[in-house]
Design goal:
It holds the Pfam family GerE. By secondary structure, the protein is an all-alpha fold. Helices cover 72% and strands 0% of the residues. It has 2 domains: 23-200 and 235-411, Up-down Bundle (Growth Hormone, Chain: A), CATH 1.20.1250.20; 422-531, Orthogonal Bundle (Arc Repressor Mutant, subunit A), CATH 1.10.10.10.
Amino acid sequence: MMTKSFAAAVRPRPSRGLLVLLVLGLAGLFSSLLIYSGTVIGFLRFPVFRIDVAPAGFMGLFAETTLLVATLVGVALVAVSARRIRPIPFTALGACAAVAYLCCALGFGFACYFAVDVPAVYPLLGVAAGVADGGLVLVWGRVCARRLSMRLALVVVGAASALSAGIDFLYGCLPLEGMLALLFVCSALAAVIPLAVHEPQMAEGAFESESLSAAVSSAPEEGHPTLESRPALASLFDVAGMSSLGLVAFAFVMAVMRTAFNEGQGAYLGALALSGAGIVVFALLKRGPFLLPGGLQQTFLPICALVVLAGGSITATLDAGAAVSDWLTYGLYSVAAVLTLATLCAVAHAGEFSADLVFSVALCAFCGASFIGQQVGGALPDEMISVAVTVTTTLYAFALVLVSYVRRRSEAQGALSEADGALPVEDRAVWGGGPADGAASEMGVALSPEVSGASVVAEAASLAQRCAALAAAHGLTAREREILPYLAEGHNGSYIASVLFISPNTARTHIHNIYRKLDVSSREDILRLTRSK
């Protein structure tokens, strides 16, 4: 793409070795998080978890306490982050979280191996695990926010998910001693790698771009109004609310299906491995920019949800058993979860919201949905579990379709009512081609042979130079320098917000500030100004 991302401009592209470390570390995290059922299911093999001291046994006591505490930790972190309180320095947070995480892994392994049958031990261990897991999630959130754009996030998170599926499969095959040794290795990778890849010479806020409040800090001139800042959580919901729904649905369904999940974990791990590998292939093959409400979320996931619903009905009618339905269900929610995590990395990487806010919201949503799902699953008879999953999938599919429709309608109305007016198609043809990555067709410009190939590249380079010169001459901020070339290519605010993973409100505010500084009143003026020779 002609326009270089602001995040990419201030963050060096990770090397292959670093990406491998991130994949190993995230795979270790996914395979050792005690708030994640994929990790703890394998430990039901230990005799101590067969002792029925409570309705759900020791594992039930541990899991429910861990999820509840992690949810409360997430709520506290959200409150702190939303109030823009100065965050804990990375080194201190990382070191404390790493030590606590490793201690919890050792404590959990000790209780499993020595069959500790004291009921009070497991709630206490659950409290410690909830706090430690929440802290390490925050640490990994900061690392991923600094390192991973959307494409890299899809590759790293997808590969880590596939690798963690293999590790969880080994949990069920190894002897108990080997299982615990693997848990400790994964815990060590998850705890140590973030500290190893951290850049101590960078200030904690060095990578954060301008927030909405910074965008509106300068007083506008008459006739060029700016938009007022919205609460951080409301703006974050605008950006990542739809994506986060996939993680919430994943957590709830996996918790509701815990009995079937325990008995058929192989189907889940197979679906997770295939989903992760498929997303990696998609990210490597896709050309052009990734949009926030991209095709995977607007088209692929709704189709998958409908296939899951149809597949369940067909298998029930043909008496084909629940295996096919389970595979489809696990596949849908695995894709949704991986896409959500990658999108959250990209949103935090964009810099409008702090990584602490993005990932503390995700932690709270995931653990809260898991806790509620466990309560629902425990209260329902076994024959009603499939009904609950079907209802949840139906609601999820409906929400995907509805939100996609509302978003498209809102974008269409916004495009018509924007005060920055777009040039007619024929004027765009006069003023030149569009982006070099093929977005010209999206703008309605058909490139003739005379302006294709090398001439398009030359035009794009020339346009970028003119935008850079204008930005320097008029004192545009770093984020405004990033947005100006998109305006020069003819894109509107909705597209810019989507491709930059920022909220529409923030994009519009920056656009208005660009108009004010360049002393123009519409996108047509921007096009004429940037394309004049």
